[in-house]
């Protein structure tokens, strides 16, 4: 969503979702019209069968009388209940159940993950010392492995590798070469086709993309391990988290949002590393943990944790490190170079540097490709194992409304132990402190406004009035046909006594026939009309909600997990599409029939008005008693479903980490607990519905008795037809009151879904200003920050504090600083993604005075996490269809992706998982080249690519964006050392802003300290800065 906002792509996305929704509604509409027809049959089957029976009797010359007609009527009523109501219901429910079972079955029949991988021997004990006196921790012999066993080419081929106990083994290689796959092989995630792998010792794993679940920072680090204060403090100190804990509002008790949304990229990476290091193990698999942190912190992590003098080395642990940071290789005991799924070289640093291989050049290339490789395998991994976390709503904190129902057991200091059977993947215990994030639950009955909004979304006022008239008219015809049977039997009775009659038998037959045809036509038409209105309403509500979600502030997404948002779009929209119209039409039809019946009974026997009044009062009272708890249960059921989705989604995205920790059972148990809470609420909802039915039946039976005995008690002469009609109508009423009241209750319950959807149609929106800047703006690309402060939450302290900076046209500015210093927030401010105080001027125009769409479409960005959407390459580059094929191919050629893409209509899979991280970054660069704006922002765009891709991106920017203003947020200092200016951020303030060469001359300057921290690289960085300075000053 952040990317959609930064690119100002809301409109094309709304169009895509709108189109998908239109297709969905089309299918639902057919089903609804069918349902409307079959619900109408409920009303006319009994009448039409009765008509055919009477007509046959009359035409065969039989005498018809009240006792025959009304006995037949009540039998047909019983038959109608079974044949016209329950039987179709049984068929439709059966069909739906079958479809669901088939889907579950096909899922269960998919290939499972073997607990015991073929060809892999994992001994938990320490390795035995071999004859040579050295123990091997990991041995791979002639290993071939493949993600997709159906494809001929192997992901990894002929891998031979021995890693001795306690060694630091660095794995390098180009993008997409198979580095991450090597670790997945050791974790038994990548299937081995042949060869043997032997591992001695416990494994601990840190993934390339840090995986965090909703819970405290501490629980994310402990992740199922018991809390040992001394060890915990040492690990967090080594992982440079101490300062972060001071910055976070509640230290390590701070709640991490979904996927760690509230933390910076570097903080997420360090927490992920701390989790791996905290677990006591003898082998640590570290998948590029240093790429997301800045140089200074990277050096600290290497020295304190990974390197030969680090914490893991003192524990004599074996470390397998994938990295792109070439300057650490000198300290590695063993270096493995992976290319195209094979180990091309391995040896010590000295051996490799002395070999004929141009080691430095290879490293440059490798470093690049490494990244790509990495990303590619990550992508294959996520693709294969469907770890994708988009299909499913995401982790909700268990704030989701039911802390009292379940407590996570905890020992005194609040840490979870392994025995507590809960990882708190969504631990309530943490969240209860922070209840501000709980999902809102409406109280009491559904207000009239909700009903009004629903029907107004479905039709205009005139349309609604017309619909009401049609319904009333159809009921008049229905009751008229019932009453006419009574008149007809009276006529026949008179005829049998040879008295004068108003109609002949045939005339009666024709009149009754016409009425029955009227009943059929009117009921079918009213069903069609009603479902048309409902379908339109659900289409309008969905579009309104989606439009509102796209234009709401970013803060909404930071505080609401995607599970909660998706719950509204899936479950609540589903209820509005399917269940609500059915419940309402049932209730309307039954209400109309009931009023018809009551009027007929009262015309025949006015005394019954009193009984009806008493029954109505009792029914109303029972319903009032029932509705409050039932609506609240329904809301609670909706709220309890979100954490189930979220937990599932979180578990899927972190499945490699969970399996590496062998915590599958605990995660399953936790999922079961969340599922139990949801099932409990569901079961209560069903029970209360059943109880209601029972009580209403009792009341209706009393009413039937009152009707029957009223005639005998009166003792006066009454025509038998009247008695028959009254009793048969009262019997219909008995079955109907119960069903009707339950449908009223059901429609009121389902209406809570409309209420929940409407909540999302009046969210706080971003600025509504529509003023457009001049078409050619910005022509220069000058950016001024005037006393700028930024807050993510109006009540919290500012994240950026009083910035005053001017960036002249076509300057290339590097933004550096430690993680959490406010570098990404600066970019958020430029795009106005949060609450700003102060001004930002671009070419003299204040960005707050023009429309957000025009502002964002005039600034290009290559984001930190390159996001691709599940669509064609063409759509990913140009959703507005502004450019021709030639332009798109030229942009792809500029970023050297022309060969990697089969065609512009090639489909990108979810989140771009069929491209490596490096390739995804290049596609984002191609987007920026197409837009050709005067201002370009790079948000740590080269953190995940190897040096070669990095160099390619930098060269492209220098040539293609020569006359543009470029802001680069970077962790790798060498990417920004040749900038015109460098801005050093610290704690939300601009600490230094000047030419890099001059900044490096300051004795205690912030930039100087950062450069010195890189160690071996420092000299080359200073050289780049001074060369650039001299070149510019010469010109």
Brief description of this entry?
Pfam families: ABC_membrane (PF00664), ABC_tran (PF00005). The chain is of the alpha/beta class. The protein folds into 3 domains: about 1-95 and about 450-760, ABC transporter type 1, transmembrane domain (ABC transporter transmembrane region fold, Up-down Bundle), CATH 1.20.1560; about 120-125 and about 135-375, P-loop containing nucleotide triphosphate hydrolases (Rossmann fold, 3-Layer(aba) Sandwich), CATH 3.40.50.300; about 810-820 and about 860-995, P-loop containing nucleotide triphosphate hydrolases (Rossmann fold, 3-Layer(aba) Sandwich).
The helix content, as a percent range, equals 40-55%
Strand residue content:
5-15%
Number of helices: 31
According to CATH, the fold-level topology of the largest domain is: ABC transporter transmembrane region fold
The CA-CA distance between the termini, in Å, is 44 Å
Largest sheet: 6 strands, mixed
What's the total count of β strands?
Answer: 22
CATH architecture of the largest domain: Up-down Bundle
**Shape field:** elongated
User: Rg, please?
Assistant: 36 Å
Strands in their spatial order, largest beta sheet: 6-9-10-4-11-12
Instruction: Determine the structural class based on helices, strands and strand pairing.
Output: alpha/beta
| Integer count of domains | 3
CATH class of the largest domain: Mainly Alpha
Could you state the CATH homologous superfamily of the largest domain? ABC transporter type 1, transmembrane domain
> Spans of 5+ residues with little confidence (pLDDT < 50)?
364-436
- Average pLDDT level: 81
Transmembrane segments: 78-99, 464-489, 509-531, 607-627, 692-713, 719-741
GO molecular function: ABC-type transporter activity; ATP binding; ATP hydrolysis activity
Membrane topology: Multi-pass membrane protein
Protein name: Probable multidrug resistance-associated protein lethal(2)03659
